[in-house]
Amino acid sequence: MDISELLNILKWRKWVIIICVLVTLLVVFVATWLTPPTYVATSTLRIATSSSSSTYSDYYFADRLITTYMNIATSRPLIDELVKQLDLTTAPSISVGQIPNSELIQISVEDQDPALAMTAANVLGSILITKGSEFFTGSGKSPADVLKEQVDRVGGELDKLRNEYYDHLARYPDDTEGNQINAEAVDLQQQLYFELLSQYQSLLSRETIQSNIVSFVETASLPTSPSKPNKVVNLALGLLVSLIGGIGLAFLFDNLDSTMHTSRDICKVASSLQPIGRIPTITRKEKRILSPDGNTRLDEAISNLRTTFLSVNEENKGITFLIVSSLQGEGKTMLSSNLSLSLAQSGKKVILVDCDMRVPGIHKIFGLQNNDGGLSDYLLGSITLKKTIKPTNYDNLHAITSGPVTKKPALLLESSRMKTL
């Protein structure tokens, strides 16, 4: 099947495509306009993961940390807290995503109320910041708390050793050896205390930074236009899908249709038959009879048919041509009249016989009387054959009109006088 045949199928089934497109667009239009609009508000937060080093383990830790906070943002405890703070019955639609190649995450809230979407995005970000430290350190004691207890214990022991040293020095000032030993014990305990205190301060500073690891970069603003439904996109997709579906249905219907619409279809079924001519469809505004100058579409088609007719007739030394159709009004009278006229114009003597006794039309085309002697009168024996032959306004062309309409034309056409004719 070539491209021209495909285009002919689409042309023949164009109403299938048009109806499919119109119905689909109507459904999409109604569904889009009946869908309540929803709004999306987005807040942007930073997860501080930067460090002085740039090893693979640091990058891996940063990626895991951001993923962890993204999962925490949509966890049940935070969603329940959001519902509680906003006094809602159900939570709105929430999604969290990371901006590629950055430490930024975006919290997007979708709802039919734009103000609620904005408020929920900001409140959820605040909850994540507040709860971030708790989720990071856990519910038990932090390392700084444990180290603080050690610092306090060592500090208490240092004070005790100092008191014992000063007390022993006051009571035994001449005990040089004992006082030296007590002084060294105080110095060692003091070194331990300051070392633990330095570690505690460093760890406390680190935990303070970690507790503030999440911060707002941009709060959500009030959305002014709905994110859904996107009317233009929906209609465009509906048009595309309907075109594809309509074209598919056109080819499906054509494949299931056994009707023959063109001479090419006939040749496919009856491969031994070849068309001898193609007559164009004549509109009501066009003449149904050959023009004097012979420059119309009908003239050219009839001329080609006449040439084929004469060639076949000469090869077969006389042949019978049957002009027939399945329905009334398909052009039998027009074709036979024009072919007869074309043969007459080529110099052949032609008699055109109108055997259509139900809806005769030859007399109308050539302007002849039909009730003053025709084929039915001859078959009934009312007149002789010579009297039925009527001249037309064209040279070499005569006609036998059908005559008055009878009740049983089939019997007349099967009579012996018809065979004699």
Molecular structure report:
By secondary structure, the protein is α+β, with helices and mostly antiparallel strands. 57% of the residues lie in helices and 9% in strands. It has 16 helices and seven strands. It has a four-stranded antiparallel sheet, covered by helices on one side. The chain has a three-stranded mixed sheet with strand order 5-7-6, covered by helices on one side. Helix 10 crosses helix 11. The longest helix is centred in the middle third of the chain and has 36 residues. The radius of gyration is 52 Å and the shape is rod-shaped. The mean pLDDT is 82.
Please identify the structural class as seen in this structure. Answer: alpha+beta
> What is the β-strand count?
7
What does the overall shape look like?
Answer: rod-shaped
Radius of gyration computed on alpha carbons: 52 Å
Provide a short characterization of the protein structure.
The protein is an alpha+beta fold. It contains 16 helices and seven strands.
SSE blueprint and pairings:
Layout: H1 3-12, H2 14-34, E1 39-47, H3 56-73, H4 76-86, E2 93-98, E3 104-111, H5 114-137, H6 143-171, H7 176-211, E4 214-218, H8 231-256, H9 263-269, H10 297-315, H11 332-345, E5 350-353, H12 362-366, H13 375-379, H14 385-388, E6 390-391, E7 397-400, H15 409-413, H16 416-420
Parallel strand pairs: 5-7
Antiparallel strand pairs: 1-3, 1-4, 2-3, 6-7
Helix pairs in contact: 2-8, 4-5, 6-7, 10-11
